[in-house]
Amino acid sequence: MAQYEVQHQLGKTFHAHLTAGDWEGIRSLLTDDATWTLPGDNTISGTAVGADAVVERAKKIASYGLRFELLHILVSRENMALSLHNTARRGEVRLDEYLSTVCRLRDGKIASIETYLSDVPGMNAFFV
């Protein structure tokens, strides 16, 4: 299997585990020292350090009832990114954002995740 196919499959598997709430599945894709950085100033912002903290962040985000629509899996020479459209509703507050989740890989696993958002103020209002 070509390297880009491996990266593409890793992105597809990460998204599948996220939408299914398969936290052990997500954990299996991460290096032990994995990190996940999100912009903004809210309950999910900042950097989660360590694979267990990354899984806890994924659980917390999913607990808000998000729909994670996968638009594209993008690959570079060594890494991959997910292009997503996330939507959710919590009472009168609505989340409708586009994002790229950039994953840097090491030894076939995700070593770091950095998320880029289209609507940081909207994210701040939703994740209180």
In short:
By secondary structure, this protein is α+β, with helices and mostly antiparallel strands. Helices cover 34% and strands 44% of the residues. The N and C termini lie far apart (43 Å).
The main sheet comes to:
6 strands, mixed
Q: SSE order, as H and E?
A: HHEEHEEEEH
Order of strands, widest sheet: 2-1-6-5-4-3
Q: Please give the domain count.
A: 1
Q: Per the principal axes of the C-alpha atoms, what is the gross shape? A: globular
Terminal-residue CA separation = 43 Å
Q: How many separate helices? A: 4
Q: Approximately how much beta-strand content do the residues carry? A: 35-45%
Q: What is the arithmetic mean of pLDDT?
A: 97
Total number of beta strands? 6
List the uncertain runs.
none
User: Which structural class do you get from the secondary structure elements?
Assistant: alpha+beta
Query: Helix amount, in percent?
Result: 25-40%
Pfam families: SnoaL_2
InterPro entries: NTF2-like_dom_sf, SnoaL-like
Protein name: Nuclear transport factor 2 family protein
Organism: Streptomyces misionensis
